[in-house]
From TrEMBL:
Domain PTS EIIA type-2: residue ranges: 3-143
Keywords of this entry: Cytoplasm, Kinase, Magnesium, Metal-binding, Phosphoprotein, Phosphotransferase system, Pyruvate, Sugar transport, Transferase, Transport
Protein name per its UniProtKB record: phosphoenolpyruvate--protein phosphotransferase
Cofactor (UniProt): Mg(2+)
Phylogenetic classification of the source organism: Bacteria, Pseudomonadati, Pseudomonadota, Betaproteobacteria, Burkholderiales
EC primary class: transferase
């Protein structure tokens, strides 16, 4: 395609008072360069009267009416860059106005590139902020940056290159690959990773996975462009830094497999065995329910290309926020490693090749859902064909994500994994989303034809505590629905046709295992009292009322942190006061008079909500987040406070404000809360702050004079004390809450609270780590709040310790030089404390 855009047709840093003004300015560029007769500018305006040319993500594409084509001298486009944006349609703002004068259909390829750009917010932002017109010229004329995929003819490496051997025991799979992508995207340079004859763009997740790089693969990293050297060095560091973690994970998986070996029961009479791989320990006896998934039947319903592009863009954005919410929810419910599964899924949505392929089909006139489905299926089939089973399993992840997008495009693609009566679920494969949603109360266990022990599905099954076997072979699907079965998840075996005597023996074994589990549960319910009788309160961190029951069953005395932002995610607008009230009231009811600390909205930083249209922050963690945002947005804050105080009439709750750094912020929040309370005639409730900034810790004595309680958020406190972005792909591992500098801040906070006899808890990740919990207890906190599943281990550690020994441990930890030295105290002191 000839170049449609030249530098003279780009106007950087422009301003427009209105949409009309923007169209005229862009039209004048085309006219001045001789591409159109000036009269065509009117045609550009005329089009706008009959259709909306806003493409999505801040891009608008005004183009003239068909009947005015004779006013075009030659095909071209002009770009107006509007950093401040201009209102285009229905509140949507355009930052890039791409005016098209096309004699025939030469602009179709340009549209395709724009569609692809819309799926790549980072590159789009680079174009809005570019100070060199050639950056826009290259991007829109189709320079290759950020768009390459796996190239199966040997490509030349870029100018600068380094070689390395991949030291990951499980090869390059989605989790580390997402970190590679995050690092690479921070640089402008064009980059390439070559593995033999295959090369991939490290800014593209699927492309990296398709390299099929297994353990010890020889890789060549190369780059070219202004920051090529830095980009290469950073990517190399990321790759190497992840190595230790990959080895740890592999060792843990090996240990799990070894532990999974003992066979608790085996039939003595003949029975049919399906020998698979253990994916979740435990024992299940019951009927099977065979889930026969059919390929989604997506009809090709051609639609207007522009409208279809809007639809796809919307569906992708909705899926992205749904996955963000799922990541946070899964992290809070099941743990960080489980949450990362869905973070990696979200990255798949940025895959330029996938978006490109879908856009190509759209532009060929196919329907939006059909195009997306075809593009995703082609990619998934390529992944599934990789020789390494671990990498091939990523096809399941891609199909899972693709299905979510189809759902947002209005297709009925739900897999119904709900069971009415208890059963062992049998399926070809289960998507991670389906597994995360399984109800352990009726899902006795599950077996799949394919999948592997390290698949995301298996990770989730283990966390949910559902017995499971994967890779049981295709014959599994021949089992008749309703057949009685015995599943030994620990050895990965499913038996069908088991004799009545063997079934009785199996039930006996199952009862024995259940008794053992019950004994463990009974210990969980005991108080977290040290050997010398000092009792710590144990709270649970939750996001939804339904989780209260599980938290209490896991041994929590109450709720130490309810993160309310989850109410605001996965939707298009803020929840109303009534909706929030309903949720908080249900929390109060479920808590049944136990401690319940509800945190007000903590948005900003790592948690973003698209519909709030918050301005871009170059340092989100240092920007308008948490209470700072709430104080600026009474439209969000007041309904939440009202809902909380209404719920307070139904039962006890405490209100806590996040991300507080100055006394004035706390005073403002307290004053607003009091105004709302008086208006509603609600009872007084304890009002506290999270201590998660160094200023709050340093000023703890002042804050303690103002508020009723503290809860220390060690996750944020650590990132601010150590100046380490908790999400930074390379540095996040340095964000260690056990660092003595963080512990000293906690000590100062406890001392500040004590001076005014105020209650102090900890709700960051450190509280759920047995060593961290021991040190925190020694530092004198009143409460530890954590994920429900961390409670038993923390309780048993505290119950085996003496308070004076924990205090000595804390003193020694404060004097340590670094995290390793604090960890080294673990073995000696904890044993001595017992
Ligand atoms: C924290 O920062 O420790 C905390 C509990 O809050 P969040 O992780 O939700 O930021
Ligand atoms: Mg926090």
């Amino acid at each position: 395609m000839p170049s449609l855009l030249t530098a003279e047709l780009v106007r950087l840093n422009a301003r427009a008072s209105s949409k009309l003004d923007a169209i005229v300015q862009a039209g004048e560029l085309l006219a001045a360069a001789g591409y159109i007769e000036p009269a065509y500018i009117e045609s550009l305006q005329g089009r706008e009267q009959v259709s909306n040319t806003y493409l999505g993500s801040g891009v608008a594409i005004p183009h003239g009416m068909q009947e005015d084509r004779h006013l075009i001298r030659r095909t071209g486009v002009a770009v107006l860059q509007l950093p401040e944006g201009v209102e285009w349609h229905d509140g949507e703002r355009a930052n890039l106005v791409v005016a098209i004068a096309a004699q025939s259909d030469e602009h179709i390829a340009l549209l395709q590139r724009l569609t692809r750009l819309i799926g790549d917010p980072a590159q789009l932002l680079a174009l809005v902020e570019a100070r060199d017109p050639h950056v826009l010229v290259e991007a829109l004329n189709g320079a290759t940056r950020g768009t390459s995929t796996v190239i199966d003819t040997t490509p030349a490496d870029f100018e600068q290159c380094i070689e390395l051997v991949l030291d990951y025991p499980h090869g390059l799979h989605a989790r580390p690959a997402s970190a590679w992508v995050a690092t690479s995207k921070r640089y402008q340079a064009a980059m390439r990773v070559r593995h033999g004859k295959l090369a991939a763009d490290p800014k593209n997740l699927v492309s990296l996975l398709q390299l099929g790089a297994t353990a010890n693969a020889q890789l060549v990293l190369s780059a070219q462009g202004v920051d090529a050297a830095e980009a290469l060095a950073a990517l190399k560091r990321t790759i190497e830094n992840l190595s230790a973690e990959e080895h740890e994970r592999a060792a843990a998986a090996r240990a799990r497999r070894q532990k999974a070996q003992p066979v608790a029961w085996a039939p003595l009479d003949p029975a049919t065995l399906f020998d698979g791989v253990s994916a979740g320990p435990g024992f299940a006896i019951g009927p099977v329910r065979v889930l026969r998934t059919t390929q989604p039947d997506i009809q090709d319903r051609p639609a207007d290309t522009l409208e279809a592009t809007h639809q796809l863009d919307r569906a992708l954005r909705e899926t992205a926020s749904e996955l963000d919410a799922l990541t946070r929810d899964t992290t809070a419910r099941l743990g960080a490693a489980e949450g990362e599964i869905f973070a990696a899924h979200r990255e798949l949505l940025n895959d330029t090749e996938l978006l490109n392929a879908a856009a190509r089909m759209l532009l060929d006139g196919h329907g939006v859902a059909w195009s997306w489905h075809q593009a995703a299926e082609q990619q998934a089939a390529r992944l599934a064909a990789l020789p390494d089973p671990l990498l091939a399993a990523r096809a399941t992840d891609l199909r899972d994500v693709a299905r979510r997008v189809l759902k947002h495009l209005g297709e009925d693609v739900a897999t119904d994994t709900r069971l009415d009566t208890p059963a062992i679920l049998i399926a070809e494969d289960l998507a991670p989303s389906d597994t995360a949603m399984l109800d352990p109360a009726v899902t006795l266990g599950f077996c799949t034809v394919s999948g592997g022990p390290t698949s995301h599905t298996a990770i989730l099954a283990r966390t949910l505590g559902v017995p499971a076997a994967v890779a049981c072979g295709a014959a599994l699907m021949d089992i008749a629905d309703g057949s009685e079965a015995v599943l030994d998840g620990s050895s990965g075996r499913l038996y069908i046709g088991v004799s009545a005597t063997d079934r009785d023996r199996a039930r006996h074994t199952q009862r024995q295992l259940a008794d053992e589990a019950q004994r463990a549960a009974a210990n969980r319910a005991l108080p977290a009292a040290t050997l010398d009788g000092h009792v710590l309160e144990i709270g649970a961190n939750i996001t939804r009322p339904e989780q209260v029951r599980d938290a209490i069953a896991s041994g929590a005395d109450g709720v130490g942190l309810m993160r309310t932002e989850f109410l605001f995610l996965e939707r298009h607008d803020a929840p109303s006061e009534d909706e929030q009230y309903d949720c908080y009231r249900r929390m109060v009811e479920a808590s049944g008079g136990r401690q319940l600390i509800i945190r007000t909205l903590d948005i900003g930083g790592d948690k973003q909500v698209p519909y709030l249209n918050l301005p871009h922050e170059s340092n989100p963690f240092l920007g308008v987040r948490g209470l700072r945002l709430c104080l600026r947005r009474p439209d969000l804050f007041l309904p939440q406070l009202r809902a909380l105080y209404r719920a307070a009439k139904d039962g006890p709750l405490w209100i806590m404000f996040p991300m507080v750094s100055t006394l004035d912020e706390a005073r403002q929040a307290l004053a607003l809360a009091e105004t709302v309370r008086v208006e509603l005639g609600a009872p007084k409730v304890p009002l506290g702050i999270m201590v998660e900034t160094p200023s709050a810790a340093a000023f703890a004595d002042h804050f303690a004079a103002l508020v009723d309680f503290f809860s220390i958020g060690t996750n944020d406190l650590t990132q601010y004390v150590l100046a380490v972005d908790r999400e930074h792909p390379e540095l996040a591992r340095m964000a260690e809450s056990l660092h003595p500098a963080v512990l000293r801040m906690i000590k100062q906070t406890v001392e500040g609270a004590r001076r005014h006899r105020k209650w102090v808890g900890v709700c960051g990740g450190l509280a759920g780590d047995p060593l961290g919990a021991s040190i925190l207890a020694g530092l004198g906190v009143d409460e530890l709040s954590m994920s429900a599943r961390d409670i038993p281990a923390v309780k048993s550690r505290l119950r085996a310790s003496r308070l004076d020994a924990l205090q000595a441990l804390a003193r020694r930890a404060l004097d340590c030089e670094d995290v390793d030295a604090v960890r080294a105290l673990d073995s000696d002191d904890i044993k001595a404390a017992a």
